[in-house]
Amino acid sequence: MTNNEIITRGEQVMMSTYKRQPLALVRGKGVWVWDADGRRYLDLLGGIAVNSLGHDHPRLVAAITRQAQTLIHCSNLYWIQPQVELAQLLTVLAGLDRVFFSNSGAEANEGAIKLARKYAKMQGHNERSTIIATHRSFHGRTLATLAATGQEQLQKGFEPLPAGFTHVGFNDLDALASAITPATCGVMLEPVQGEGGIHCATPAYLRGVRELCSHHDLVLILDEIQCGLGRTGQMFAYQGYDIQPDIVTLAKGLGGGVPIGAMLASAQVAAAFKPGDHGSTFGGNPLACAAALAVLNTIQDDNLVERAGLLGEHVRQRLEPLSQQLQAVVEVRGLGLMMGIQLAVPGDQVVEACREQGVLINCTGGSVIRMLPPLIIERDELDQGLDVLIEVLRRI
Ligand SMILES: *Cc1c(COP(=O)(O)O)cnc(C)c1O
What we know:
Bound molecules: pyridoxal-5'-phosphate
Strand content: 15-25%
Radius of gyration: 21 Å
Mean pLDDT: 98
Number of helices: 15
């Protein structure tokens, strides 16, 4: 089928929940993808930070193939070796003690919300159930994670949302301190806000949040679903801030494209979950865990974390001067290979112009151009994409 045939048929049977680009991707190799008409694109979005190893990575493909031939799924009624190995690796990398596996980011956050509430009860705080989150945050599309999300336009029409969430400004420590009440059980935030437009927490803020949480015995939940696993130049973004969360949630890049999410917690907090308190049919199944193990091992063996930091520095050096030179560019933000360009104009035209020249990027929040390329991208490939993007920005 051609792009047009797929789109025409799709419009008749798919719910229109997505504003899709007018093409169907059918194949990928490294940082390149091809559409149904045979056109090639440089993928600077990586499935929204999911394809951390790019496309058709030999180690990931081999691990999935091997596991598929061995055991795809059993059930969490049994012990699963790749799941145990993955949990071991994640706990060592994160400096946390216990793991729960889900299939998506929203589910990982749902688990984190439940665990924070249950931990408060275990500590004898029956009155504590509220989680403080931040404006512009994104935590998922399920009802509880949507309630946690600090973007009213995403919540409209879905009321009543679950109670127990309040929102304060991001990077505003005083506002957070003032929002703590006897009903508060935890704080939830992204060290680098992704969907909200690539906003980085300041070191003073994140350390201040950690101190407030420790002082009040509140659970600090860091949502690293987008910014975690090497993207910012640290395995976990919080490691660049020298703090430890009580809970961290992961998903997007973890399986390199195979759906898997994870919620990691300290032993103290994790102890609040008893058998029967939480679960998932598919969560952490052998296939997904084998994929995630291959992803993490490759990230480590190929030094992709350090590379992300260095490449991010390079991107910044090329883009930052634009905010002085071009009226349309307000600010360049980000860490490592998680970069955003705040425009003074709508970003859709930039996304479209780049696509027409064979480069895939995305726009979030209406006017922020976002780049989340595969971590395996080579510097000259990145430069090819930046050449196109910079030329497009110069012309608006
Ligand atoms: C994408 C995302 C989620 C939701 O993940 P899904 O897998 O789509 O449910 C939650 N938090 C952050 C920070 C995200 O970027």
